[in-house]
Write a structure and sequence with these properties.
By secondary structure, the protein is of the alpha+beta class. The chain has 3 domains: 89 residues, Pseudouridine synthase, CATH 3.30.2350; 132 residues, Pseudouridine synthase (2-Layer Sandwich), CATH 3.30.2350.10; 66 residues, Roll (Archaeosine Trna-guanine Transglycosylase, Chain: A, domain 4), CATH 2.30.130. Helices cover 23% and strands 32% of the residues. The chain has 8 helices and 18 strands. The strands form 4 sheets. Strands 1, 2, 3, 4, 7, 10, 11, 12 and 13 form a 9-stranded mixed beta sheet that branches. A 5-stranded mixed beta sheet has the order 14-16-17-18-15. The protein has a two-stranded antiparallel sheet with strand order 5-6. Helix 1 runs parallel beside helix 6. The longest helix is centred in the last third of the chain and has 16 residues. It starts with a strand and ends with a helix.
Protein backbone atom coordinates (compact mmCIF):
# COMPACT_ATOMS: atom_id res chain seq x y z
CA UNK A 1 0.00 0.00 0.00
CA UNK A 2 1.21 3.50 -0.88
CA UNK A 3 1.30 5.97 2.03
CA UNK A 4 1.57 9.72 1.49
CA UNK A 5 0.16 12.54 -0.62
CA UNK A 6 -0.09 12.77 -4.41
CA UNK A 7 -0.45 16.10 -6.21
CA UNK A 8 -3.23 15.44 -8.73
CA UNK A 9 -4.31 17.78 -11.51
CA UNK A 10 -8.11 17.56 -11.54
CA UNK A 11 -9.41 18.04 -15.06
CA UNK A 12 -12.76 19.48 -16.12
CA UNK A 13 -15.73 17.15 -15.95
CA UNK A 14 -14.51 15.16 -12.95
CA UNK A 15 -15.80 15.58 -9.42
CA UNK A 16 -13.27 15.26 -6.62
CA UNK A 17 -14.93 11.94 -5.73
CA UNK A 18 -14.46 10.77 -9.34
CA UNK A 19 -10.73 11.35 -8.99
CA UNK A 20 -10.60 9.29 -5.80
CA UNK A 21 -12.59 6.46 -7.41
CA UNK A 22 -10.32 6.36 -10.47
CA UNK A 23 -7.20 6.36 -8.29
CA UNK A 24 -8.54 3.40 -6.32
CA UNK A 25 -8.72 1.49 -9.58
CA UNK A 26 -5.29 2.61 -10.79
CA UNK A 27 -3.46 2.01 -7.51
CA UNK A 28 -5.49 -1.04 -6.42
CA UNK A 29 -6.00 0.33 -2.92
CA UNK A 30 -9.12 1.54 -1.12
CA UNK A 31 -7.69 3.89 1.50
CA UNK A 32 -7.67 7.16 -0.46
CA UNK A 33 -9.15 10.57 0.33
CA UNK A 34 -9.08 14.07 -1.15
CA UNK A 35 -8.36 17.30 0.68
CA UNK A 36 -11.09 19.67 -0.42
CA UNK A 37 -13.77 19.62 -3.07
CA UNK A 38 -13.29 21.26 -6.47
CA UNK A 39 -16.42 21.81 -8.56
CA UNK A 40 -16.70 19.56 -11.66
CA UNK A 41 -15.97 22.45 -14.05
CA UNK A 42 -12.99 23.69 -12.00
CA UNK A 43 -9.47 22.48 -12.71
CA UNK A 44 -6.16 22.34 -10.95
CA UNK A 45 -4.41 21.16 -7.82
CA UNK A 46 -6.15 18.46 -5.78
CA UNK A 47 -3.85 16.86 -3.19
CA UNK A 48 -4.97 13.27 -2.65
CA UNK A 49 -4.00 11.36 0.49
CA UNK A 50 -3.08 7.68 0.22
CA UNK A 51 -2.99 4.95 2.85
CA UNK A 52 -1.86 6.27 6.22
CA UNK A 53 -1.56 9.66 4.56
CA UNK A 54 -5.37 9.96 4.81
CA UNK A 55 -4.78 11.23 8.35
CA UNK A 56 -3.47 14.38 6.65
CA UNK A 57 -6.78 15.15 4.90
CA UNK A 58 -8.09 17.45 7.62
CA UNK A 59 -4.73 19.16 8.04
CA UNK A 60 -4.46 20.00 4.34
CA UNK A 61 -8.05 21.20 4.14
CA UNK A 62 -7.11 23.96 6.58
CA UNK A 63 -4.25 25.29 4.44
CA UNK A 64 -4.44 28.46 2.36
CA UNK A 65 -5.10 28.05 -1.34
CA UNK A 66 -4.43 30.05 -4.50
CA UNK A 67 -6.77 30.28 -7.50
CA UNK A 68 -6.96 31.95 -10.89
CA UNK A 69 -10.52 32.92 -11.77
CA UNK A 70 -12.20 34.75 -14.61
CA UNK A 71 -14.92 37.11 -13.41
CA UNK A 72 -17.64 38.01 -15.91
CA UNK A 73 -19.44 41.24 -15.06
CA UNK A 74 -22.98 41.97 -16.23
CA UNK A 75 -24.47 38.51 -15.59
CA UNK A 76 -25.98 36.93 -12.47
CA UNK A 77 -26.73 33.19 -12.33
CA UNK A 78 -28.39 30.95 -9.74
CA UNK A 79 -25.12 29.02 -9.18
CA UNK A 80 -22.88 32.13 -9.22
CA UNK A 81 -20.95 30.66 -12.16
CA UNK A 82 -21.61 30.15 -15.87
CA UNK A 83 -22.94 26.60 -15.38
CA UNK A 84 -26.19 27.95 -13.89
CA UNK A 85 -29.25 29.64 -15.28
CA UNK A 86 -29.04 33.37 -15.94
CA UNK A 87 -31.08 35.28 -13.37
CA UNK A 88 -30.38 38.79 -14.61
CA UNK A 89 -28.27 40.81 -17.04
CA UNK A 90 -27.00 44.36 -16.52
CA UNK A 91 -25.00 46.79 -18.66
CA UNK A 92 -21.37 47.07 -17.58
CA UNK A 93 -20.71 50.79 -17.34
CA UNK A 94 -17.99 50.78 -14.68
CA UNK A 95 -14.42 51.93 -15.33
CA UNK A 96 -11.28 49.87 -14.87
CA UNK A 97 -10.33 52.06 -11.90
CA UNK A 98 -13.68 51.38 -10.21
CA UNK A 99 -13.23 47.63 -10.71
CA UNK A 100 -9.70 47.78 -9.25
CA UNK A 101 -10.87 49.73 -6.19
CA UNK A 102 -13.77 47.36 -5.64
CA UNK A 103 -11.61 44.23 -5.86
CA UNK A 104 -9.02 45.73 -3.49
CA UNK A 105 -11.75 46.34 -0.90
CA UNK A 106 -12.24 42.58 -0.49
CA UNK A 107 -8.66 41.92 0.69
CA UNK A 108 -8.53 40.95 4.37
CA UNK A 109 -11.06 39.36 6.72
CA UNK A 110 -14.59 39.12 5.34
CA UNK A 111 -17.93 37.54 6.20
CA UNK A 112 -19.09 35.46 3.24
CA UNK A 113 -22.55 33.94 2.72
CA UNK A 114 -22.03 30.49 1.13
CA UNK A 115 -23.95 29.83 -2.12
CA UNK A 116 -27.06 27.69 -2.28
CA UNK A 117 -25.31 25.44 -4.78
CA UNK A 118 -22.74 24.06 -2.34
CA UNK A 119 -22.14 20.86 -0.37
CA UNK A 120 -22.71 22.53 3.00
CA UNK A 121 -25.48 20.96 5.03
CA UNK A 122 -28.50 22.61 6.62
CA UNK A 123 -30.77 20.41 8.71
CA UNK A 124 -28.91 17.31 7.53
CA UNK A 125 -29.45 18.07 3.84
CA UNK A 126 -26.92 19.46 1.38
CA UNK A 127 -27.65 22.96 0.12
CA UNK A 128 -27.39 22.00 -3.54
CA UNK A 129 -30.05 19.31 -3.00
CA UNK A 130 -32.40 21.94 -1.60
CA UNK A 131 -31.52 24.31 -4.46
CA UNK A 132 -32.40 21.65 -7.03
CA UNK A 133 -35.80 21.32 -5.35
CA UNK A 134 -36.31 25.04 -5.90
CA UNK A 135 -35.85 25.86 -2.22
CA UNK A 136 -33.70 28.63 -0.79
CA UNK A 137 -32.80 28.69 2.89
CA UNK A 138 -31.05 31.23 5.04
CA UNK A 139 -27.30 30.73 5.24
CA UNK A 140 -25.26 32.27 8.00
CA UNK A 141 -22.22 34.34 6.90
CA UNK A 142 -18.92 32.62 7.62
CA UNK A 143 -15.55 34.26 8.31
CA UNK A 144 -13.04 33.96 5.46
CA UNK A 145 -9.77 35.71 4.69
CA UNK A 146 -8.50 36.97 1.34
CA UNK A 147 -4.77 37.25 1.85
CA UNK A 148 -4.14 38.64 -1.62
CA UNK A 149 -6.16 39.42 -4.74
CA UNK A 150 -4.25 40.36 -7.90
CA UNK A 151 -5.75 41.53 -11.18
CA UNK A 152 -3.92 39.62 -13.91
CA UNK A 153 -5.84 41.10 -16.84
CA UNK A 154 -8.92 43.16 -17.57
CA UNK A 155 -10.93 43.36 -20.76
CA UNK A 156 -14.35 44.37 -19.50
CA UNK A 157 -16.67 42.65 -18.94
CA UNK A 158 -13.99 39.99 -18.20
CA UNK A 159 -11.51 40.32 -15.34
CA UNK A 160 -8.91 37.64 -14.56
CA UNK A 161 -7.88 37.57 -10.91
CA UNK A 162 -5.49 35.57 -8.73
CA UNK A 163 -6.81 34.93 -5.23
CA UNK A 164 -5.00 33.54 -2.19
CA UNK A 165 -7.49 32.74 0.54
CA UNK A 166 -8.34 30.73 3.63
CA UNK A 167 -10.24 27.44 3.83
CA UNK A 168 -13.97 27.45 3.21
CA UNK A 169 -13.83 30.34 0.72
CA UNK A 170 -16.04 30.28 -2.37
CA UNK A 171 -14.42 32.07 -5.29
CA UNK A 172 -17.68 32.16 -7.27
CA UNK A 173 -19.28 33.93 -4.31
CA UNK A 174 -16.43 36.45 -4.38
CA UNK A 175 -17.18 37.07 -8.08
CA UNK A 176 -20.88 37.44 -7.30
CA UNK A 177 -20.16 39.85 -4.43
CA UNK A 178 -17.83 42.00 -6.56
CA UNK A 179 -20.59 42.32 -9.18
CA UNK A 180 -23.11 43.25 -6.48
CA UNK A 181 -20.83 45.91 -5.03
CA UNK A 182 -20.17 47.39 -8.49
CA UNK A 183 -23.92 47.41 -9.16
CA UNK A 184 -23.65 45.53 -12.45
CA UNK A 185 -23.90 41.89 -11.26
CA UNK A 186 -21.20 39.29 -11.84
CA UNK A 187 -20.42 35.58 -11.85
CA UNK A 188 -17.44 33.27 -12.24
CA UNK A 189 -16.63 32.13 -15.76
CA UNK A 190 -13.78 29.70 -14.99
CA UNK A 191 -11.64 28.53 -12.07
CA UNK A 192 -8.15 27.07 -11.83
CA UNK A 193 -6.60 26.14 -8.48
CA UNK A 194 -2.87 26.71 -8.75
CA UNK A 195 -1.66 25.96 -5.23
CA UNK A 196 -2.58 24.22 -1.98
CA UNK A 197 0.10 24.81 0.66
CA UNK A 198 3.29 23.14 -0.70
CA UNK A 199 1.57 21.66 -3.77
CA UNK A 200 1.93 23.69 -6.98
CA UNK A 201 0.15 23.23 -10.30
CA UNK A 202 3.39 22.84 -12.24
CA UNK A 203 4.17 19.67 -10.23
CA UNK A 204 0.68 18.14 -10.49
CA UNK A 205 -0.09 14.96 -12.43
CA UNK A 206 -3.13 14.16 -14.56
CA UNK A 207 -4.84 10.80 -14.04
CA UNK A 208 -3.46 9.51 -17.35
CA UNK A 209 0.09 10.36 -16.22
CA UNK A 210 -0.46 8.66 -12.87
CA UNK A 211 -1.73 5.53 -14.60
CA UNK A 212 1.33 5.43 -16.85
CA UNK A 213 3.77 5.99 -13.95
CA UNK A 214 2.05 3.30 -11.86
CA UNK A 215 2.27 0.81 -14.74
CA UNK A 216 6.01 1.51 -15.03
CA UNK A 217 6.52 1.22 -11.26
CA UNK A 218 7.78 4.82 -11.04
CA UNK A 219 4.97 6.53 -9.13
CA UNK A 220 6.48 6.38 -5.65
CA UNK A 221 9.06 9.07 -6.45
CA UNK A 222 6.15 11.52 -6.86
CA UNK A 223 4.63 10.67 -3.46
CA UNK A 224 5.20 13.10 -0.60
CA UNK A 225 5.68 10.94 2.51
CA UNK A 226 3.76 11.80 5.70
CA UNK A 227 6.82 13.05 7.60
CA UNK A 228 7.79 15.30 4.67
CA UNK A 229 4.53 17.18 5.22
CA UNK A 230 5.92 18.71 8.43
CA UNK A 231 9.22 20.33 7.39
CA UNK A 232 8.97 22.97 10.13
CA UNK A 233 8.85 20.38 12.92
CA UNK A 234 12.29 19.28 14.22
CA UNK A 235 13.15 15.59 13.79
CA UNK A 236 13.76 13.61 16.99
CA UNK A 237 14.94 9.99 16.95
CA UNK A 238 14.18 8.32 20.27
CA UNK A 239 16.53 5.99 22.10
CA UNK A 240 15.82 2.25 22.35
CA UNK A 241 14.60 2.63 25.92
CA UNK A 242 11.53 4.43 24.54
CA UNK A 243 10.68 1.85 21.87
CA UNK A 244 7.84 0.07 23.69
CA UNK A 245 6.43 3.37 24.89
CA UNK A 246 6.24 4.75 21.35
CA UNK A 247 5.00 1.49 19.83
CA UNK A 248 2.02 1.71 22.18
CA UNK A 249 1.23 5.32 21.21
CA UNK A 250 2.21 6.81 24.57
CA UNK A 251 3.47 10.36 25.20
CA UNK A 252 7.19 11.03 24.98
CA UNK A 253 8.89 12.54 28.08
CA UNK A 254 11.37 15.36 27.56
CA UNK A 255 13.89 17.19 29.75
CA UNK A 256 16.07 20.13 28.81
CA UNK A 257 15.72 22.70 26.06
CA UNK A 258 12.71 22.24 23.82
CA UNK A 259 13.52 21.53 20.16
CA UNK A 260 10.10 22.98 19.25
CA UNK A 261 6.44 23.16 20.20
CA UNK A 262 5.83 20.33 17.75
CA UNK A 263 8.24 17.59 16.71
CA UNK A 264 8.45 14.73 14.23
CA UNK A 265 9.18 11.71 16.39
CA UNK A 266 10.97 8.61 15.08
CA UNK A 267 11.42 5.13 16.57
CA UNK A 268 15.00 4.05 17.33
CA UNK A 269 14.77 1.90 14.18
CA UNK A 270 14.06 5.02 12.10
CA UNK A 271 10.31 4.42 11.62
CA UNK A 272 8.33 7.69 11.62
CA UNK A 273 5.91 7.53 14.56
CA UNK A 274 4.07 10.81 14.12
CA UNK A 275 3.74 14.46 15.10
CA UNK A 276 3.87 15.27 18.81
CA UNK A 277 2.91 18.51 20.56
CA UNK A 278 4.47 19.87 23.76
CA UNK A 279 2.39 19.67 26.94
CA UNK A 280 4.04 22.10 29.35
CA UNK A 281 2.01 21.16 32.43
CA UNK A 282 2.97 17.47 32.04
CA UNK A 283 6.51 17.97 30.81
CA UNK A 284 6.12 15.71 27.80
CA UNK A 285 5.23 15.53 24.12
CA UNK A 286 1.77 14.19 23.39
CA UNK A 287 0.90 12.49 20.08
CA UNK A 288 -1.25 14.64 17.76
CA UNK A 289 -1.14 12.45 14.67
CA UNK A 290 0.22 8.90 14.59
CA UNK A 291 1.31 7.47 11.24
CA UNK A 292 3.02 4.25 12.36
CA UNK A 293 1.20 0.94 12.72
CA UNK A 294 1.96 -2.24 14.74
CA UNK A 295 3.18 -3.93 11.56
CA UNK A 296 6.09 -1.49 11.43
CA UNK A 297 7.57 -3.00 14.58
CA UNK A 298 7.23 -6.70 13.82
CA UNK A 299 10.57 -8.56 13.65
CA UNK A 300 11.82 -9.25 10.17
CA UNK A 301 10.59 -12.70 9.06
CA UNK A 302 13.27 -15.38 9.28
CA UNK A 303 14.38 -16.88 6.02
CA UNK A 304 13.13 -20.45 5.74
CA UNK A 305 15.39 -22.76 3.80
CA UNK A 306 13.49 -24.54 1.07
CA UNK A 307 15.58 -27.16 -0.77
CA UNK A 308 15.22 -27.45 -4.49
CA UNK A 309 13.52 -30.55 -5.94
CA UNK A 310 16.93 -32.00 -6.84
CA UNK A 311 18.35 -31.46 -3.35
CA UNK A 312 15.12 -32.63 -1.73
CA UNK A 313 15.28 -35.85 -3.74
CA UNK A 314 18.91 -36.41 -2.71
CA UNK A 315 18.04 -35.72 0.93
CA UNK A 316 15.20 -38.24 0.72
CA UNK A 317 17.54 -40.93 -0.65
CA UNK A 318 20.09 -40.24 2.12
CA UNK A 319 17.32 -40.61 4.71
CA UNK A 320 16.17 -43.92 3.22
CA UNK A 321 19.77 -45.11 3.09
CA UNK A 322 20.20 -44.20 6.71
CA UNK A 323 17.18 -46.28 7.66
CA UNK A 324 18.75 -49.39 6.04
CA UNK A 325 21.88 -49.22 8.18
CA UNK A 326 21.97 -51.53 11.18
Amino acid sequence: MINGVLNVYKEKGYTSHDVVAKLRGILKQKKIGHTGTLDPEAQGVLPVCLGRGTKLCGMLTDKRKTYQAVLRLGIETDTQDMTGEVVSRCPVEVTAEEVEDCIRSFVGDQMQVPPMYSALKVGGKKLYELAREGKEVERKPRPVTFYEIKILSMELPLVTIEVTCSKGTYIRTLCHDIGEKLGCKGCMESLLRTRVDRFFIEDSLKLSQIEELAARGCLEEYIVLPDQMFPDCPKIRAGREFDKMLENGNPFPWKGNLPGEKIRLYHSSGVFIGVYGWQKERGLYKPEAIFASPQDFLPAPEKIYKPSEKNADAASKMTEAGKERP
